[in-house]
Amino acid sequence: MDAVSRVDPKSVTVKTSAWMRGLFLLVPAIALVELVLHLAQTTKHLSEADWQQAIIMVKAGIHPNDGLICSPKWMEPTARMKLGPSLATVERMAAPDTSRFDRILEVSFYGKTRSELALLPAIDRKRSGDVMVLVHRNPNYRPVTTDLVALSRPGSLAVSLTSGSAEAPCPWQTSQPVTGNLGFGPAIPSTRASCSQGSNVGVTVIADLEYDARRCILVQPPNKSQLVKLQYSEVTFGASLVLHHGLYAEHERAREGGPITTTLKNSLQVIGKDAHLDGEGWKTVEFATPDLAGKKGSLEVEVSGRTDTKRAYCFDLTTR
Q1: Which residues constitute the domain of residue 72?
Q2: pTM here?
Q3: How many domains does the chain have?
Q4: SS3 letters for the chain?
């Protein structure tokens, strides 16, 4: 008869307990490592001389139509302040997408780089201490024919509030911008079209679901039976219309709001329609317009969705 091996239950218990104790010790060890890395990251800082060198390198390398990105992302607020509004423009640092830039200038701190830039070819680089400025050639470059954000102003854009067959104009006004505490949403711009139901339309900057800054056209949607209509008088069309849209991060993170639908029309037809759902973040949709390429005409954008005080919807639209 074969011998049957016997295992002492006590020894199994002892070994298991030792393994569990080791596992519990691993948790505070990981936390300690994270704390050390956090302290190293937050206490290490650039001197004023480093910033001056960064400014000199950016000035020397940047072209008027370049994009500007900082790595790591958490350095961008400080970099915008240090570089100043002439270099760190809203158009460069809060663009709806990077495909509109032939070149992207990256200001890299402490040797960091963004994942979306890691594979782009660098055609130039300069370094001073912990700061390196790289110029990337963008292989995904698609020139913009018409930027509707730039046309969202009195004289080029007429805004109205539609309910059934009734349509009421939303007059343009200029006053102080309206801001608030965390959760208020993006700033309501000083130059804006104001509708009777409290819906404002104008160019602002939102923090999207990933907390990236996006320059876009703010629309505060009315209730389900109404829609906001934006009518652009003269648009030069390309082979496609590219729509980027989303909501302020804190207004869609909880996924409690209804969809917001954007419909694009010209004088002859509905070009396209897309519904943005909470949680989708900054979304890109492209509509082919080969029959309109090279032509000029009007373009109508209709935005509809349920009323909610915390629904700051924003979109960007370009012809390509």
Answers
A1: 48-137
A2: 0.83
A3: 2
A4: CCCCCCCCHHHHHHHHHHHHHHHHHHHHHHHHHHHHHHHHHHHCCCCHHHHHHHHHHHHHHCCCCCEEEEECHHHHHHHHHHHCCCCCCHHHHCCCCCCCCCEEEEEEECCCCCCCCCCCCEEEEEEECCEEEEEEECCCCCCCCEECCCCCCCCCEEEEEEECCEEEECCEEECCCECCCCCCCCCECCEEEECCCCCEEEEEEEECCCCCEEEEEEECCCCCCEEEEEEEEEEECCCEEEEEEEECHHHHCCCCCCCEEEEEECCCCEEEEEEECCCCCCEEEEEECHHHCCCEEEEEEEEECCCCCCCCEEEEEEEC
